[in-house]
Amino acid sequence: NVFGSNLNMCGIWAIFGYEGDTMELLPTFQKIRGRGPDCYRIENINHFKNCCLGFHRLSIVGDKDGMQPLRIKQFPHLWCITNGEIYNSIQVGKEFNFDFQTSVDIESIMHLYDKFGMVGACQQLEGVFATILMDTASKKVFLCRDTYGVRPAFYLQSSGGFLGVSSEVKGLLDVQQKLGDNDFKINFVPPGSVMEFDLLENGTCRLNNVTHFHKIGDVPRYRSLVMPDPEQDVLANIRNLLEAAVTKRMHAERRIGCLLSGGLDSSLVTGLMCQQMKRSGIAYPVQTFAIGMADSVDLAAARQVAAHLGTEHYEVNFTPEAGIAAVDEVIRVIESYDVTTIRASVGMFLVSKYVSENTDTTVIFSGEGADELCQGYIYFHKQPSTESGDQESRRLLNDLHYYDVLRADRTISYWGLEARVPFLDHRFGNYFLSLPAEERRPKENIEKYILRKAFCGTGLIPDEILWRPKEAFSDGVSSRAKAWFEILQEEIESKVTDEMLASAAETFPVNTPFTKESYYYRQVFSRHYPDHDHLIPYFWMPKWTPGASDPSARTLEHYTPN
């Protein structure tokens, strides 16, 4: 294995400077157990009894090693817990002559930290990660997160220096209430950053600085096994780098499958994965999963792709009633009140539930990130200039952890599965953004034109799918008779009065709901996460569409029905 070993999907959790019995917080720690249902560990720290590290494990590779917090004899002063995968752990071990003592990929983080410091270490990592590293020798605590925020991490810190960290908000909410201090809020660890805290003698922490180790579009400092080739044309580099992005994410001893909507992004990922499995001699067929209502356009398209690739295909049909019944729980699980995020999360939540309860697939590939990176949203047709389109693409990528990345992580991990998103590969993304903005914009009235062109003539997926117009996941699951968003709006109409909506600015002054649907979602969110409306910065809406009042692409002038 050249990409790493002993990979884990998990939930991480930690507290520093808690004045009570740390074990009384165990119920709060257990609220993120869905992320790692195989086993868990919670440990106090020597000489810091009011500090505690917790880990919920979903083992993807290897049962013998991999339990965290990770400690090794070479660095007895270091404690490390990480949710994620480091794809180049073996490469950096060879490059810097590290003497690895385990087969755990995150051990590379500890060696890199010892050699380069925490910021330098993160700059050498190819992968996705949310990490807590505690150094009892230098009295430091570091919180780190990958560039796109693929793996989540939240923290809260009181004025007195208490620090709590968790993969999800729900793992800290009760802690905040126990402390009885509502003046501080739970916040996300910024993607692509290292937060450095001083660890004081009483176990409390003081924030020193926040350093961004990598920004979207920057050239990665590490060398990947597959690099852009200046001797090849752009289309060949796009194909090769996306194929490499899929391949490096395929290391797992648990079964791998794909969410297949029948759209361009999920179809390309599935096709590349099937291609690599044949080359590698993996015996079992790829399991693919599609979800939709009766006569959904996504179900029909996914069926066509699955037949072309010869996958073991599953269709999950859901009724309007089942979708509506799931909404409240979905809001609690995803920790968001954004309208389009919730609409799309219902389908992903229900299909992930099916995968978890009915199959042995544990690792789920998905197509998130392609629309932001490759200008795939329909409103990109209306960009006033190539520079505007480029700026919007980068803005969406920077904010992705609030929306689609959040949706994929929460809805999949809740059911004890792991999401992998090849389009958010650093090397692929950096190369794609390095192309002239004119090449990345829609062409010939087709969004993601250059991505489609790169795979034209390869036979990887059917031509009808390769050139299929964009259909948002929350719309593609709809029946032809009535859109999913219309079903939701009709259901919610009687639950929110005109008077309630008229006074929405008084009730919810931050990100004020603008429709009855958005008001209802906000009500549910506030019941679960009171006073945390800051967790999303704005409602996701299409740009360059004056008068748009709904995020659904089906309401836009440029929309073409499939």
Shape descriptor reads globular
Quaternary assembly: single chain
| Number of E-state strands | 17
State the distance separating the first and last CA atoms: 42 Å
Specify the biggest β-sheet.
6 strands, antiparallel
Helices and strands: which structural class? alpha+beta
Spatial ordering of strands, largest sheet: 2-3-1-9-8-10
Percentage beta strand: 15-25%
Q: Give the low-confidence spans.
A: 1-7
- Tally the helices: 21
- The whole-angstrom Rg is 23 Å
The pLDDT mean sits at 92
Portion of residues within helices: 25-40%
Topology:
Elements: E1 8-16, H1 26-29, E2 39-45, E3 48-59, E4 70-72, E5 75-86, H2 89-95, H3 107-123, E6 127-135, E7 140-145, E8 154-157, E9 163-166, H4 173-179, E10 187-188, E11 193-199, E12 205-212, H5 234-247, E13 255-259, H6 264-280, E14 287-292, H7 297-309, E15 312-317, H8 320-334, H9 339-358, E16 361-365, H10 370-373, H11 386-398, H12 404-413, E17 418-420, H13 426-434, H14 437-440, H15 449-455, H16 463-466, H17 473-476, H18 484-492, H19 498-502, H20 504-507, H21 516-528
Parallel strand pairs: 13-14, 13-16, 14-15, 16-17
Antiparallel strand pairs: 1-3, 1-9, 2-3, 4-5, 5-6, 6-7, 7-11, 8-9, 8-10, 11-12
Task: Please characterize this protein's 3D structure.
A six-stranded antiparallel sheet has the order 2-3-1-9-8-10, with no helix packed on it. Strands 4-5-6-7-11-12 form a six-stranded antiparallel sheet, covered by helices on one side. The two termini are 42 Å apart. The protein has 21 helices and 17 strands. Helix 2 packs across helix 3 (107-123). It has helices at residues 26-29, 89-95, 107-123, 173-179, 234-247, 264-280, 297-309, 320-334, 339-358, 370-373, 386-398, 404-413, 426-434, 437-440, 449-455, 463-466, 473-476, 484-492, 498-502, 504-507, 516-528; strands at residues 8-16, 39-45, 48-59, 70-72, 75-86, 127-135, 140-145, 154-157, 163-166, 187-188, 193-199, 205-212, 255-259, 287-292, 312-317, 361-365, 418-420. The longest helix is centred in the middle third of the chain and has 20 residues, at 339-358. Strand 6 and strand 7 form a beta hairpin. The chain is globular and about 65 Å long.
